[in-house]
Structure formats: C-alpha cells, structure tokens
Fold these 3 entries.
Entry 1:
Amino acid sequence: MQPRSRITEEVLDAPEIFLGIAALLVMIVGAYRSSTVNVVEGLIMGMSAVLSYKHVEYPLLKATFSFFTIAAVLGFLLFIGSIELIGSGWGHIWITWALFVASILSIFAAYRAAVLRRYE
C-alpha cells in the first residue's frame, strides 16, 4: 500500500481551503439569485478563511471572524436552508445543490479545525 501524497496531507491540514471553496460557492449562488444575504455570508466565510490562513494579521479581525465558529454556524445554517429547499420541491435546481455542497464543505472545515485544534 502506497502512502498518501504530501499534497493530500497539506490540503487536509488546511481547512481554510475548504471554507474558501464553500465561500466561493455561496457568493456565486448569492450573485445569481441577487441575494444580499448569501453574498454577505460568502464574504464572511471568505474573510474568516483568509484571516485563518495567516495572510492578514489583525487581532481584532481574528477575534471577530473566528474560523471555527463561522465555519460551524454558517455551515449548519446553510445545511438547514438547503434541506428546506430540497424538501419544498426545489431540489432539481443547481442552486440548492451548490448550497448543500457549500454547507458540507463548511462543516468539514469546522471538523478539521477541531481535529487539528485550531480554534482561532
């Protein structure tokens, strides 16, 4: 059995990547639907991912956009919203499934942050 590649380990050790992809999906859906709420959610998720990835060093912003909290809470809210859309008959539209995938990615990012003990 071959060991996992180094790139796979690096990606799994960077939950910010998953939250960033989820943020992009949410912003795309928000722009398509002209939904300010989705665009703002995506911006908050993206800001949290950038701050957690150590690109920006502002203690006040890091305290405001806590990675674990934002990933878990917004992932859970997106999950509930996408399940509600699927249950109401909107399951055939790509928007619903994009939000569902974004919610799963966000929850996975929160899970990986908890496993790696990153509560910043």
Note: Helices lie at 6-12, 15-33, 36-52, 59-64, 67-90, 94-115.
Entry 2:
Amino acid sequence: MHGSPLLRALAAFVAILFLGLPLWRLTHPHAVAETVTAPVGTEGAKAIHLQLAFTQVPEKFRILFLGKELWKEPKPSAEMERDFQVPYPKEGIDLVFEIEWPGDTLSAARVQLRTPDGRNLDKTIWGKGKAEETLTFE
C-alpha cells in the first residue's frame, strides 16, 4: 500500500466537494429562473368582463391578478359586474378570489368571465366565513 491515509481522505473529500457543488447549484432555490409577468393594464392587454352573483352578500371581497389587486369592493352587493384590461394569453388567466361571508352559513359565488374572443366561462366558489380560491379561465 502506497500513500498516506490522510492524503487519500483529503483527496476523496475534494472530489466529493467538486461533484457536489453542481448538484447544490441545481437544487438551491436561487437557481430557479424567475418568470417575468406583465403588470395589469400593460401592452397586449385585452378586454374581459367579469360578472359576480352571490347566494349571500359577502362582507367584503377582492380579486387578485398576477399578485396585484384587480378589484376590491368594501361593500359588495348580491350581483356585480365590471370590465378590465388585462393580458390574456391563449393559455388563459388565473384569478385569485378572496371572499368573506358573514356568519358560518355555506355560501356560494358564481363567477362568469367573458373572454376577449366572446366566450362566457362560468366557475363557482363555495365556502363558509372566509374563502380563498384560485380560478383558471382558459
């Protein structure tokens, strides 16, 4: 047997370190590529129409698009509608709904979105008290 055991252990440690470094970079959270999203109301925005109907009038609600507040209503009514200009890719959009109903009664909200090409898409949200749900419109 030739060579020092300490020198062999050091060589093995250096080899593991160099092989582990690329693996660490691949699995580290900062290695994930960031996606760039267009803010609400920028170039390429298209008109959509939202209609909401509630079984019980909520105390408050808001809708988020791309992490930004799209619509907030401190005193909502049983039925509401509004037009928006948002980027609408062919894959569709995700809208986050945060609704707060009074009491502990099971309630529902019907959401109808008219796409830029004129199609009507219906979704329903059910909940008691506070509800937060992401709806995808394709």
Note: Helices lie at 5-27.
Entry 3:
Amino acid sequence: MTATERAKAINQETAEWIAADPTSRGGGMLVTDEAHWSEYGITTGPQLDAYLAWNDYVDTYKDIHGIKPRWTSWEDDTAVGWANQLKDLYGFIKFQEECRLEEEERVARAWAAARGPVISLTHNPFASLKLG
C-alpha cells in the first residue's frame, strides 16, 4: 500500500467517524498527494503510519517536558514502536500525577498536625448550663 492509499483509507475512517456524530465530532483530513508525502521520504503506508505515530509521540513529549524531542525521527521506529513509546509517556504522566497527589496529601497531613486538635463547630460548650 502506498502512502497516498493509506492516507485515503485514514481519511475514509475519519469521515465515517465524524458522520456517526457530526454535531460533536470534527477532524482534519490528510493530504493525498503522492508528491507531498515523497517530500518527507514517505512512500508506503507503514511509513505513513510511523510518521503519524511519531507526531503523536512528539506532541505528547512536548506537552510533558516543554520541548520537542528533536533528536528523534519518524524513521527511528515503526508505528507500533512509537505507540509503545507514547504509552510509556502516558505512564510517566500517570506517575507524575500520583506523585503530585501524594505530595498534596503529605502537605495536608503536616498542616493538620501543625494546627492541633479540632474543635467541632457543632459543639456548644454552654449547652449543659442551666439558666436561673
């Protein structure tokens, strides 16, 4: 399968996905010009898949670390390989979130320990007094 054939197949999948719920779904279409993809060195469907997976990886990496991993190229791995690396990034995001939550909990416990015992706001110290 050529890159153009694969791009057309992906566009068809995207169009069908949008058509299933057009009021809340949208998406872009890939270029289907053979010359366009050949400028990137992409001539086959698997190469296009690798390129698209690499783009997902690069965007996610930048979201996490604030820089694009310019030391990588789509040609460094396959689509499956880039998907696995993306999965690793999502694992890193989950790990960071867990660490953040643990730190928030640690800070909250330290604050609670520093403020001392809590007196219930519903406690009325005068409830047992008898008036005249």
Note: Residues 1-43 form one domain.
